[in-house]
């Protein structure tokens, strides 16, 4: 490994820590749900290692418990996880193109909401940064799931409650600094949050699942922003680079 | 459960992996189209904003604790603290405020 790759890997490991903390709590809850549907610790751990998608796994566990068909499960996962496709498109523009093509097959597997978030904002994204984050976050996701199945409801409520904001805190740490430097981005962030609130109160829309909501709002707002404020080459220099 | 659970898991894994990996492997070049380029530039910010708010307010057992955690995270992020600092501070504030509420 080159020095720069090592450095990026370490940074990824470090930035993966808050993700891992957040994942432990969420996946613990996932494990408890799996246990309630009669899924074993080994099965749940394999599921988490190979899928790493909270909404998708929660839905799958309930569906599997109810004996859904293979095709139904496939369609359900496609719909719930479709947002990853958007993220993948966005990430394709961040990658350092000097790295061999095969890296994309590994990096793609690491696209979760959180790992995507910390990776995409880096210009000339080094694959090893993402591998570092994956190395801390994904095992935490699997271990949490496993513990949830084995132990059930043992964590004190106030600890679970406190840790459940970890991932949101991280999202805030990702979006606010660039928004501070760029008024348009700040506007886009604020508008997104306001529309997201409004979405919860609009009749008919309030029943849409969160995954679908994320897709609809991301496409609409990003498209509108792209029309109103097309990004000039210079604007992108505002993104920080390490 | 009449079907095999490992087949279920394999199906989920394959579908989800393809969703994640196809755009990344098919879009090899820098996109030149200004609209698409700008669109993809805004995607992460919009996605993360929409996922964070107002969801964070309902994430904990107490909406005031969650709000306090949110505000503290915003302030620390504004002053460019690291991911782990912002995230940990939000957790600690939520913990403290909930403790306060439970002991009043």
Quick description:
The complex is a heterodimer of chains A (242) and B (104). Chain A is 74% helix and 0% strand.
Q: Give the CA-CA distance, first to last residue of chain A.
A: 18 Å
Distance between the termini of chain B: 48 Å
What radius of gyration of chain B results from the CA coordinates? 20 Å
The number of E-state strands of chain B comes to 0
Largest sheet of chain A: none
Mean pLDDT of chain B: 92
Note the main sheet of chain B. none
Mean of residue pLDDT values of chain A: 90
Compute the number of structural domains of chain A: 2
Order of helices and strands of chain B: HHHHH
Shape of chain B: flat
Please report the number of helical segments of chain B: 5
Radius of gyration of chain A: 19 Å
Structural class of chain A: mainly alpha
Please report which band the strand proportion of chain A falls in: under 5%, 5-15%, 15-25%, 25-35%, 35-45% or over 45%.
Answer: under 5%
Helicity of chain B, as a percent range: over 70%
Percent strand of chain B: under 5%
SSE topology:
The complex is a heterodimer of chains A (242) and B (104).
Chain A: H1 3-36, H2 41-51, H3 54-65, H4 70-80, H5 83-92, H6 103-109, H7 113-120, H8 127-151, H9 157-163, H10 166-181, H11 183-201, H12 210-228
Chain B: H1 5-26, H2 34-52, H3 55-58, H4 63-78, H5 83-102
Explain how this protein is built.
The complex is a heterodimer of chains A (242) and B (104). Chain A has helices at residues 3-36, 41-51, 54-65, 70-80, 83-92, 103-109, 113-120, 127-151, 157-163, 166-181, 183-201, 210-228. Chain A has 242 residues and is mainly alpha-helical. Mean pLDDT of chain A is 90; it is low at 237-242. Chain B has a domain at 32-102. Helices cover 78% and strands 0% of the residues of chain B. Chain B is mostly helical. Chain B starts with a helix and ends with a helix. Chains A and B meet through helix 1, helix 2, helix 3, helix 4 and helix 5 of A and helix 1, helix 2, helix 4 and helix 5 of B.
